[in-house]
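Structure in, sequence out. Go:
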């Protein structure tokens, strides 16, 4: 394999990963923001573990995409 073909394969892999991550982020976004996110909703974190989990998933996926794939070194 040449360096160009190795880089092309790596790019194809990254495209597949980013597409999957975008789908997961979109799904989490739809679940989390089905209703407007307010301070009253945020106050329920302690008593609503599902809500807390959705927020954590959204933030984690957002950071993963923006920090690892979308930002330039």
């Amino acid at each position: 394999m040449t360096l160009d073909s190795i880089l092309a394969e790596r790019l194809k892999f990254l495209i597949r990963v980013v597409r999957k991550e975008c789908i997961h982020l979109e799904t989490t976004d739809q679940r989390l923001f089905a209703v407007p996110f307010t301070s009253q909703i945020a106050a329920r974190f302690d008593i609503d573990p599902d809500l807390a989990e959705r927020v954590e998933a959204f933030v984690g996926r957002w950071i993963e995409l923006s920090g690892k794939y979308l930002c330039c070194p």
